[in-house]
Amino acid sequence: MDFFNENVRKFISENIDLDINFKYERFKVGRSNITFKIYDDFNQYVLRRPPFGNKLESAHNMQREFRVISELYKYQIKVPKALLIYVDKKISEDDFYIMEYVDGDTISDNIVANEYSINDKKKITESLIKNLAYLHNFNVLSTDLKDLGKHNNYVERQLKRWGKQFEAQKIRDLESMDNATNMLLDTIPEQQRVSLVHGDYRLDNVRIKDNNVAAILDWELCTLGDPLADLGTIIASWSNKDELDTPFIYSPSLSEGFLSRKEILSIYENECSLSLKDIEFYVRLSFWKHAMIMEGVYVRYSLGYYGDTDKNEIDAFGQSTINFLKKANNNNLLEEIL
Fold first, then answer.
1. Domains, the chain, ordered by start
2. What is the chain's mean pLDDT, rounded?
3. I need a labelling partner for 277 at 20 to 30 A (CA). Which of 21, 83, 92, 157 fits?
């Protein structure tokens, strides 16, 4: 399906500085919202749109994502500048928006990470964690994003929301999903602070330039709530070669030289002054949530929403769900991965 038809091209070229015959490339990183680089001989931008096909209720909200980065940009949070949003449904049945293209690298996997020196990797890790702490220390309640979501009971809301979406798209029964959900429901810690939570903060969701974070990307899961959920995602995804059965099989941190999980926790604790005594819960929550995400990807690929795809690739997504759930059900999770 050709999204960039004549009407879409005309709308874009009339509203930003781009030739109507612009070229485009789809970014390979990301399995939910679709991201394109659009460019001509003089300018380049990034366009975001939902996946093709049926969408889950409340998911893939382009207007919300556009609003978030537009507001954060005012406060020097490292996000791309939002430029244009389309919502009229006349030339496209789905909303989409355009933002600036931020120069830099996306360290999407361990192969890309191997191109960096050990010293580079240490600086990159420090920048990644300090930018996360800065985001969590940012007084979002004093901005126009104060109504982005409810302030408290973040974990309960997440468990309910993701559980509802899982049931809405369910095409198979997963007992291990039920077990992990119940384990989380039984051990919810008290929320210490209300922060802007990114929802999927990882090294492959930022742009790196000169060993520093140049932009934080992919805000579709962000809301207000418990900042330790983001830290849990970092720790869960920060795989190393000694870890058994990591489901993050392409994690950049599998390339040796990055700071360790313990060092990451130390940096964050010093920057944010939050107690990390319950961090295992948030790591477990991240593995559970990634199981949910991968099951959604598995469902969409199985139903053909991304076009023709090799069956082995589809089956791999389904197995990835199982692998994440194995971690989420581990009673000694933190002891094993630290």
1. 6-100 (3.30.200.20), 110-337 (3.90.1200.10)
2. 93
3. 157
